[in-house]
Amino acid sequence: MSYIYLNGKKSDLELSLGRVNLKALLLDCGVNFVEEGVAIAINTRVIPKSEWAHTAIKPKDRIEIVRPFSGG
What we know:
Layout: E1 2-6, E2 9-13, H1 22-28, E3 39-42, E4 45-47, E5 62-66
């Protein structure tokens, strides 16, 4: 079994990494990126939304999902 870090937490993946793209991972995690503004970074590199479907997820990647929120 492979793993990644998702928002700082180790997450086991049963999927075949290397064949999984970022967009599929977000859908599988239930991230509603169509209605919500979301920024994604993999290993501290921000990934443009236009690249999500073409960005492969690799073992031990550190993925951060950031959503804006209002507050003070």
